[in-house]
Recover the amino acids of this structure.
């Protein structure tokens, strides 16, 4: 890496003197100074192309005009942006750009917010000298999300550079030459990236627009409202565009601390699910096997009477609450307060966790100890158990930037996922080997660092064998000055979760690496801080009575009454079958939900409609501990209540004290009264001597987690589901395994009959590690009757 010269130089733009870092481009200095230079191809998050020539400026004593986007400043440089020579060049460029551009502004979705329109008015000619026929192109589909009209394209190449530099998929390119040049997906495939919708924002004309919102409204008719993403733990900032009280589209809201100027397709198009026919429109009661609509007062009265009845007959310990990790802090707080006021501690949101050992040693909240704005400064990232590009698409942008800056990304995964980037080193292995792999990294660290003298750690790994084969991997990772260790979903699912956490925390502490968990959903961190775990009260205060309570045994105990909040267990949880068995045997099940499903209608007794994501008010805490509050973007036409309000009304019906809240701000202030300087990501593990994997057997079942199946809203977004249906693995009941596993499976006649009866396809995929059966989503587990995601069995048991 070369030496960077950060010295300041003085330049003059239009007679005004400025100082800036040597090497800064002219257009950057002008933007900082508030001097506008027109541009099409330039974008500050993309590389320099300098192909539109719209940003030409005049430099004193230079014979030719310079492209401001590509020209670095020099000391004493005098720049002119509005001379006759510059204006003439700008008009000429505009004239060339408009030669083949169709005059269809009245029917173009970009009309009214089009950069070409604006610059034509500001810098173009009033008439055209071009009399020949305009060229036109046939449009090819880029998939269900992005609509194309390539004839409008001015070849700025922003979309091409985005796919190459930001998403890493290289889906788009420019083919042919001269006037026949056009953007194209070379193999006529759909855009593969979970970030593909960003090309719509980048396109300065109407060549690429959002397909789901096509022809729905004009830009000047839209009202822009801020919101926070609810589909992953990053908490991306959004703007929602509303037309006549209906969401029409979603665009990014710049926040350099979190998502910069990008959002995932999941964030952009999930709003479609809000208008699903599955919406619960009013409180519903199951009576004699049939569902009828009732009033809120009737519904709350029925629920409260059943709660009182269970307490009187069986005690409060027979009541449990399970909430979605996308619930707001206010909802988590009110629900845990209600349940504990009743005398029950059976509450949890960790619906995808199997191993709850040592949970009393966990930090005050689950997350990572580094902000997203600090990722750019990292030299190395170690990812363990995550398909991070699909699970957290915007974080993938940060990883690619680290690699482009000369850093390294290391991966330990059960499947060789395509990260669309040059991963430095990767270990693809059975999850039961993860403990040995991480232990080997620690052992190698003690080997490389002769000054390391912690006898307890050295002795702990003194008998470890086979660590030498990970020496090169270890040496590269530990040589970095600034590094982070990230744990993902495929570790959270593991029966070795607590031991892997312990080892990664140990690895972090001895090597100086940052460390954390890429948590499920939008608000797992907020759930911990709000007290919605059985062993912690709000603010992380220890609650020892809950140390032996968790999501797994809440279902195992077959309790009398279950409260479900914003959750569809058949799709959201690894306990899909186990939970539904428990619910079907319960005396009473009440669900606070925005949507109904066949499964919910089968197990619930009362369904109470609550505001869906974009209708809700509340607060999320992202994985870095950033609190972000939001207000409703639209109000529902149905008889729905805010989640916190519905819970407060239920508490009042139960005659519980302390639930007379005015609004969500009142609740949030109460939550924050429990938050202090001790609410940090500090771990308190004692030494775990038994570092043997809890996973036994020959075959481990792992689900494929589709990025478009993460929650009830996304599952009902039609455009996103079309992407799933375009993918054979995502659209069918498919099991994937490598050659070795497949050859053993086909020998089992009873299994083959079961698979044939259920029309389940077994596909060979050698990216899957040995001994792993890769399965589509949780609900497929019901077909083959496995209770647990990571349940292990030998081939002769199959």
């Amino acid at each position: 890496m070369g030496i960077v010269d950060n010295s300041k130089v003085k330049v003059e733009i239009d007679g005004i003197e400025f100082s800036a870092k040597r090497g800064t481009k002219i257009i950057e200095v002008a933007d900082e100074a508030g001097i506008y230079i027109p541009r099409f191809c330039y974008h500050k998050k993309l590389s320099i192309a300098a192909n539109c020539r719209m940003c030409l400026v005049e430099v004193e004593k230079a014979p030719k005009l310079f492209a401001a986007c590509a020209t670095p400043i020099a000391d004493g440089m005098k720049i002119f942006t509005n001379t006759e020579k510059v204006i003439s060049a700008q008009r000429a460029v505009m004239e060339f750009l408009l030669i083949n551009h169709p005059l269809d502004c009245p029917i173009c979705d970009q009309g009214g917010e089009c950069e070409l329109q604006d610059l034509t008015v500001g810098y173009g000619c009033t008439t055209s000298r071009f009399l020949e026929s305009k060229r036109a192109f046939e449009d090819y589909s880029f998939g269900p999300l992005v609509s194309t009209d390539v004839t409008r394209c001015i070849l700025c190449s922003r979309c091409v550079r985005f796919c190459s530099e930001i998403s890493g998929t290289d889906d788009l390119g420019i083919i042919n030459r001269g006037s026949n040049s056009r953007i194209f997906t070379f193999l006529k495939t759909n855009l593969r990236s979970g970030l593909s919708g960003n090309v719509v924002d980048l396109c300065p004309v109407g060549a690429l627009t959002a397909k789901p919102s096509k022809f729905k409204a004009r830009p000047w008719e839209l009202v822009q409202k801020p919101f926070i993403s609810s589909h992953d733990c990053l908490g991306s900032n959004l703007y929602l565009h509303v037309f006549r009280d209906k969401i029409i589209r979603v665009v990014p809201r710049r926040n350099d601390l979190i998502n910069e100027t990008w959002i995932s397709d999941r964030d952009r198009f999930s709003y479609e699910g809000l208008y699903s026919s599955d919406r619960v429109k009013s409180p519903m009661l199951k009576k004699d096997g049939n569902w009828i609509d009732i009033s809120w007062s009737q519904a709350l009265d029925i629920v409260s009477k059943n709660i009182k009845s269970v307490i009187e007959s069986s005690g409060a310990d027979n009541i449990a609450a399970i909430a979605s990790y996308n619930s707001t802090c206010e909802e988590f707080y009110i629900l845990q307060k209600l349940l504990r006021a009743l005398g029950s501690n059976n509450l949890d949101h960790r619906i995808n966790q199997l191993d709850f050992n040592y949970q009393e040693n966990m930090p005050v909240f689950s997350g990572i100890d580094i902000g997203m704005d600090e990722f750019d400064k990292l030299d190395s990232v170690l990812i363990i158990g995550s398909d991070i590009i699909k699970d957290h698409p915007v974080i993938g942008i940060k990883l690619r930037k680290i690699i482009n800056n000369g850093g390294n990304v290391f991966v330990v995964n059960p499947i060789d996922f395509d990260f669309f980037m040059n991963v430095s080193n990767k270990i693809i292995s059975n999850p039961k080997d993860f403990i040995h792999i991480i232990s080997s990294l620690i052992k190698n660290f003690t080997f490389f660092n002769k000054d390391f003298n912690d006898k307890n750690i050295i002795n702990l790994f003194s008998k470890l064998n086979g660590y030498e084969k990970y020496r090169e991997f270890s040496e590269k990772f530990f040589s970095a000055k600034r590094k982070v260790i990230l744990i993902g979903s495929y570790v959270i699912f593991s029966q070795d979760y607590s031991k892997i956490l312990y080892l990664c925390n140990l690895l972090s502490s001895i090597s100086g690496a940052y460390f954390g968990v890429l948590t499920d959903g939008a608000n797992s961190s907020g759930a911990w801080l709000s007290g919605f775990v059985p062993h912690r009260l709000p603010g992380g205060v220890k609650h020892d009575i809950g140390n032996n309570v968790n999501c797994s045994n809440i279902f195992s105990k077959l309790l009398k009454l279950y409260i479900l909040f914003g959750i569809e267990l058949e799709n959201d949880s690894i306990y899909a079958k186990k939970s539904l068995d428990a619910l079907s045997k319960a005396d009473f099940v009440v669900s606070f939900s925005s949507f109904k499903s066949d499964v919910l209608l089968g197990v619930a007794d009362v369904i109470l409609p609550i505001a869906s994501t974009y209708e809700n008010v509340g607060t999320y805490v992202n994985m870095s501990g950033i609190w972000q509050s939001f207000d409703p973007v639209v109000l529902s036409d149905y008889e729905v209540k805010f989640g916190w309000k519905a819970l407060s009304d239920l508490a009042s019906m139960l005659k519980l004290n302390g639930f007379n809240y005015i609004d969500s701000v009142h609740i949030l202030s109460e939550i924050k009264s429990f938050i202090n300087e001790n609410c940090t990501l500090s771990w308190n593990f004692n030494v775990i001597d038994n570092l043997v994997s809890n996973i036994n057997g020959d075959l481990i079942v792992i689900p494929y987690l589709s990025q478009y199946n993460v929650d009830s809203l996304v599952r009902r977004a039609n455009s996103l589901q079309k992407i799933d249906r375009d993918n054979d693995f995502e659209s069918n009941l498919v099991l994937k395994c490598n050659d070795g596993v497949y050859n053993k499976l086909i020998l089992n006649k009873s299994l083959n009959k079961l698979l044939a009866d259920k029309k389940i396809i077994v596909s060979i995929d050698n990216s899957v590690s040995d001994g792993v059966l890769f399965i589509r989503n949780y609900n497929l587990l019901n077909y083959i009757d496995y209770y647990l995601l990571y349940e292990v069995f030998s081939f002769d048991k199959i």
Observations:
- The chain has 28 helices and 31 strands.
- The radius of gyration is 29 Å.
